[in-house]
């Protein structure tokens, strides 16, 4: 292996110890940070994600509430529940686990969350503010990727970054954050012609597609940093990312593993956003 590993578990541990310290300070002042987690339906992957988020709160001194509703919950009922949480002073962040059942309009639900409690950073106000570099909260997964690059002092300024995948929760906010850090950015999607012609020029590649081996060794410039956001199962049922890790690691300069890469950082940045939401609320209250 020539590439250096960017260990998400290791970095997450360091950031979580800072989170725990900030949480302890807030709790001592009578403002324990609180995250409300809402799950609708029985999607098995969502249940695992939600469990991990609640555990991360508990392990780091944050309060969390968990509401699990049946699949047939109506949109109006869900929005009413969010309204209650918006007014609850013990709750500083609200997370609605996605995807929601098809009969519920995800946009309407996200817009129902108070902007100052939108710790996922998906509200239109936060997504729009990210364009100007002034978002109250940045979406956790791309925020975690930026922290991983910062941890290796990767000089984003002036580099060429290629992001594969353009979702609202990963690819697009990732592009904005990279742009603000001074990178020249290209976004690729399923219609991109000759993906490799872009990635081969890239100093940093972010793969966020959801398809194994979308990035192969011949698509990577020697020494590039490769961040793998994808979560997939290979033919043997083993967890894997979007990058052909065994071969790309011999070409890249830096690489993130799956599991143990971006995943733990996503949850960590959710904790960071919840701490910041609490600090913001306290500042507002004491003004
Ligand atoms: P998504 O909404 O399904 O978006 C996938 C993107 O990939 C789309 O922009 C799509 O293009 C593009 N794409 C599909 N096939 C492609 C191809 N052959 N070449 C280039 N681009 C292609 O996915 P998402 O929610 O962003 O998630 C992406 C992956 O990241 C998934 O595996 C997900 O599980 C994982 N994820 C991980 C974390 C974490 O914490 N580690 C967090 C979030 C997501 P079009 O727009 O043209 O369809």
TrEMBL record:
Record's keyword annotation contains Amino-acid biosynthesis: yes
Family to which the UniProt record says this protein belongs: Belongs to the tetrahydrofolate dehydrogenase/cyclohydrolase family.
Ranges annotated as spanning the membrane: none
UniProt keyword annotations, A-Z: Amino-acid biosynthesis, Histidine biosynthesis, Hydrolase, Methionine biosynthesis, Multifunctional enzyme, NADP, One-carbon metabolism, Oxidoreductase, Purine biosynthesis
Catalytic activity: (6R)-5,10-methylene-5,6,7,8-tetrahydrofolate + NADP(+) = (6R)-5,10-methenyltetrahydrofolate + NADPH; (6R)-5,10-methenyltetrahydrofolate + H2O = (6R)-10-formyltetrahydrofolate + H(+)
Residue ranges of domain Tetrahydrofolate dehydrogenase/cyclohydrolase NAD(P)-binding in the record: 139-280
Name of the protein described by the UniProt record: Bifunctional protein FolD
Source species taxonomy: Bacteria, Pseudomonadati, Pseudomonadota, Betaproteobacteria, Burkholderiales
Record-listed E.C. numbers: 1.5.1.5, 3.5.4.9
């Amino acid at each position: 292996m020539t590439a250096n590993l960017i260990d998400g578990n290791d970095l997450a541990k360091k950031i979580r110890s800072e989170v725990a310290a900030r949480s302890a300070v807030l709790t001592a002042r009578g403002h324990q940070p609180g995250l409300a987690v809402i799950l609708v339906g029985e999607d098995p992957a969502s249940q695992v994600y939600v469990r991990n988020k609640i555990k991360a709160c508990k392990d780091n001194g944050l309060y969390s509430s968990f509401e699990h509703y049946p699949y047939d919950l109506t949109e109006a009922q869900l929005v009413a529940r969010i309204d209650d949480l918006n007014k609850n002073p013990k709750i500083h962040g609200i997370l609605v686990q996605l995807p929601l059942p098809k009969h519920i309009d995800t946009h309407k639900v996200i817009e129902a969350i108070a902007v100052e409690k939108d710790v996922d950073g998906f509200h239109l106000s936060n997504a729009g503010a990210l364009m100007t570099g002034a978002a109250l909260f940045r979406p956790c997964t791309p925020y975690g990727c930026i922290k991983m690059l910062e941890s290796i002092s990767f000089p984003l300024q002036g580099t060429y970054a290629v992001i594969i995948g353009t979702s609202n929760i990963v690819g697009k906010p990732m592009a904005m954050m990279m742009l603000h850090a001074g990178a020249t950015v290209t976004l690729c999607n399923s219609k991109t012609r000759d993906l490799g012609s872009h990635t081969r020029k890239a100093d940093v590649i972010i793969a966020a597609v959801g398809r194994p081996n979308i990035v192969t060794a011949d698509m990577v410039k020697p020494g590039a940093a490769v961040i793998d956001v994808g979560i997939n199962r290979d033919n043997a049922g083993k967890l894997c990312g979007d990058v052909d890790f065994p071969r790309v690691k011999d070409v890249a300069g830096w690489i993130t593993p799956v599991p143990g890469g971006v995943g733990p950082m996503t949850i960590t940045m959710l904790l960071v956003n919840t701490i910041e939401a609490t600090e913001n609320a306290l500042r507002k209250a004491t003004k």
